[in-house]
Automatic annotation (TrEMBL):
DNA-binding region, residue range(s): 37-56
GO MF term set: DNA-binding transcription factor activity; transcription cis-regulatory region binding
Annotated InterPro entries: DNA-bd_HTH_TetR-type_CS, Homeodomain-like_sf, HTH-type_TetR-like_transc_reg, HTH_TetR, MftR_C
A Pfam family matched in the record: TetR_N
Residue intervals of the HTH tetR-type domain: 14-74
Keyword annotations of the record: DNA-binding, Transcription, Transcription regulation
SUPFAM superfamilies for this protein: Homeodomain-like
Protein name: TetR family transcriptional regulator
Span of the signal peptide: none
Length: 195
């Protein structure tokens, strides 16, 4: 019985978190990230500022989301890939597995990406994600490499894969783009592999 209550609590918490994030993204897209306060988002949702901060320690987090959990998912997917598979292909599959977690590639997600791209503090937070994910993924990539420069090569490969992922997602977020995020990730990874 206790597990069901915990699970229900988690489901409820996730739903509230999603509602706060959706409201914040809508407000940021309409008025600009820097023009909207946490207090305004909280009021629009019907919660206190303190409650907002329990769900999101910083305003940026309402747009960026839980990058640590997503990075860990990509790392776990990478570790699970066959050892004889080329590392570049393993990274591509790992990023694609992240996209598969959400099949709701909707207008709100596109607006969130556009808000991120137009807001310096969010772009800075995205760079923090890159560093965090590099620390998670580089040791896995390095373990599949040989030679004295395995660590440097691994970091360069991981940063290149992150750039491919970001370009794909930013391209998808354009209003006129019809390809899916997965198609764009595949195209970006292929562009570097084939160059």
């Amino acid at each position: 019985m206790r597990d069901q209550r915990t699970s229900l609590r988690e489901v409820t918490r996730d739903a509230v978190r999603a509602r706060i994030s959706a409201t914040a993204i809508d407000l940021f897209a309409e008025h600009g990230f820097d023009e909207v306060t946490v207090e305004q988002v909280a009021a629009e949702v019907g919660i206190s500022t303190r409650s907002f901060n329990r769900y999101f320690p910083a305003k940026e987090d309402a747009v960026i989301g839980d990058t640590a959990a997503w990075g860990e998912h990509v790392r776990e997917a990478l570790v699970a890939r066959p050892l004889d598979e080329p590392v570049w292909d393993s990274l591509r599959h790992s990023f694609l597995s992240l996209l598969a977690l959400s099949d709701a590639h909707d207008d709100r997600q596109k607006r969130a990406i556009r808000v991120l791209g137009s807001t310096p503090s969010l772009r800075a937070r995205n760079l923090e994600k890159h560093l965090q994910w590099e620390q998670l993924l580089s040791p896995v990539v390095a373990s599949r490499s040989r030679g004295d420069d395995a660590e440097v090569r691994a970091r360069a490969i991981v940063q290149s894969s992150l750039a491919c992922f970001d370009v794909a997602i930013a391209t998808w977020a354009r209003r006129d783009e019809t390809r899916s995020p997965a198609q764009l990730v595949t195209a970006c990874f292929a562009a570097l592999r084939d160059s």
